[in-house]
Amino acid sequence: MKNILLLYLLGFIQVYSQDQQIDSLNVQKLEEVLVSSVRVNEDIPMAFTNVSKDQIEERNLGQDLPILLNFLPNVVTTSDAGAGIGYTAIRIRGINAQSTNVTINGIPYNDAESLGTFWVDLPDFSSSVENLQVQRGIGTSVNGSSAFGASINILTDKISKDPFFESNNTFGSYNTFKNTLRFSTGLINEVFEFSGRLSKIDSDGYIDRSTSDLKSYFLQFSYKKENTLIKFLNFGGHEITYHAWNGIDGETLQNDRRFNPSGLYTDLNGVQQFHEDELDNYKQDHFQLHWSEIINNNFTSNLGLNLTNGKGYYEQYNENGNEDFITRKWLDNQFIVVNYSLKYSKNKHNIILGSTYSEYDGDHFGETIWSQNSGDIEFTDLFYSGNGLKKDFSNFIKSVFQISSRLSMYTDFQLRKINYNTDGSTSNIPELKLDKKYSFFNPKFGLNFKLNKKNRLYFSAAKAFREPTRSDYENNFNIKPEELIDFELGWSLNSNTIILNTNLYYMNYENQLVLTGALDDVGSPIRENSGKSYRAGIEIESAFKVSEKINLAGNVSFSENKNLDYVSRFDGELMNLGDTDISYSPSFISSLAINYSPNSKLDLSLLNKHVGEQFMSNNGSSFSKLDSYSVTDLNFRYTFDELYLFDELSINLLINNLFSAEYVSNGYYYTYDDTWTDENMITTIEGTGYYPQATRNFLFGIGIKF
């Protein structure tokens, strides 16, 4: 690790030490250097959406970042607690969150072992986001695991030239409270800046006892001089949430949709109780160092270093016959990352070289902290203990070559090498011993044609591979990496009154890791290889300026998502079910926003989201179908400026689910074989669980800036 870091530093110093004439460029360009290696623009043939800080602030009242992205194209979001605070998830193009690559300032955020993204570990992180970009499909080469449905690239707060202090406070339904303090010293001597944020969020949740106790912080020290930007960031969070991932069955959904079975047990008197500490308790801290440099008119570079420490457990009450016991399942991990990129630009020709090395070391262990009728169990004994060590090294070279004034060619070649080793036991496997080595080559190619100043056409073809996760191996030692070839064809129109982006895609998979619908013993979704499969569709995104005061924005996605010749065991027989729908992949998704701004102080928006029906299984069973739903939100924001006591005061009212629709955005599906009813027959029994989302609820915020 030290040798690799030394090579990066030597290479950087060698380039920087060249005696070049340096132009004076502003700090904004230096800020963008942090994410330029993983982002695209209109010169690159990809489907993407940019989201600004202002757009985030319009709805940022405490809900997690996925919920704030709910109205982007081909997006479905869900919340375990029902109201967008606590554990939340996002699916893009119907693909599970484990296939969405997330980076923060170019540093991978996905958990290296599970490939999941746990937004709850960074509460109120949206308040420290400067802007972000969502790419759909394979997209451009990114740092960390490959994007198999989308990537979300986040840039945190830029340097503030002027000092400020602001307080943002929210209260709302389900005893929801959010308090956020942000500050900046502004540029001191035009060189230094120190800024930060402290946040506290509490909510009872829509689902019974789905409480969230969330704390987070964000600190940034910046040095900026001429063409040099150095940033040191320390941010993190501590989440304590009551379990809400068990869901409820169909009968309970009809009779008591807010019921939460988590923590339910029967005491010695035969009375049903709920364990008070059926909690998830996890703390995560990030340390990042970035050095961005504009070397001359043609070269820019960025070096990024990261250390992430995470530790926590989830507690669970267990009943097993006459024996009751309480367990804690722990995760204690460390994640180290080194990024380096060098960009060359001249006459609209661009070349980016990039490398990433990461090392993840995670301990998994479980302890029993209380038991009843436990015999000889010693509380000091761990009932499982294991380790996972993952090393990931990737290099890429990207280029945009201007063939003519209108036509440009994009190429992107990435090589990833992965070593993954595990030992020890898990909560359900006596020994999990893996020694996996992968070498993936991910090429991408595309053409971008500008018809005129308003219109462009693009085409791209890309191939990518992606490794299984730790839990994939726990459920199936023979699981295989997935492979994807992605074709994208798009047309964009950008004029003074209308913006229109149309994108056709065809994603051809080999051994796609699709969700089975079932959950494992810690609530994580179980995946399996589905053989051959595909996703094909069209995405249309538009914005229309009706007048100076009114504008419309919306998107719609039509898709077909199929497993080919899907084989499944049912009633004791292995059956070829033909072509079936891929789980959790609605064929129709749409969003519509009507925005009214009579002046610079008032914004009023009415937003509608519709998600078509989807299946929680891959076998086409009607029993696993989730009904379509439509939800409308109302957002009101008014800003007072140049007040006597404050520089700015804003009020924000968000009414979620205005018409109080009762809907379910997520669930699970499982089967088991009944061999007891009839010894001569195997009957497959199907079961489902559902995560109801909140009916009409509100959040009201007051922001003050000095």
In one word, what is the shape? globular
Low-confidence stretches: 1-25
Q: Nearest-angstrom radius of gyration?
A: 26 Å
The CATH H-level superfamily is TonB-dependent receptor, beta-barrel domain
Number of helices: 6
Helix % is: under 10%
Q: What is the CATH architecture term? A: Beta Barrel
Count of extended strands: 40
Which CATH first-tier class would you pick? Mainly Beta
Helix and strand composition category: mainly beta
CATH topology: Maltoporin, Chain A
What is the count of distinct domains? 1
Please describe the biggest sheet, giving its number of strands, its sense, and whether it closes into a barrel: 22 strands, antiparallel, barrel
Mean pLDDT: 92
Quote the distance from N terminus to C terminus. 45 Å
Strand content: over 45%
Could you walk me through the main structural features you see in this protein, from its secondary elements to its overall organization?
The protein is mainly β and 706 residues long. The protein has a single domain (2-29, 220-705), classed as TonB-dependent receptor, beta-barrel domain (Maltoporin, Chain A, Beta Barrel), CATH 2.40.170. The protein has 6 helices and 40 strands. The strands form 8 sheets. The protein has a 22-stranded antiparallel barrel. A 5-stranded mixed sheet has the order 1-6-7-4-5. Strands 2-3 form a two-stranded antiparallel sheet. The longest helix has 15 residues, at 2-16.
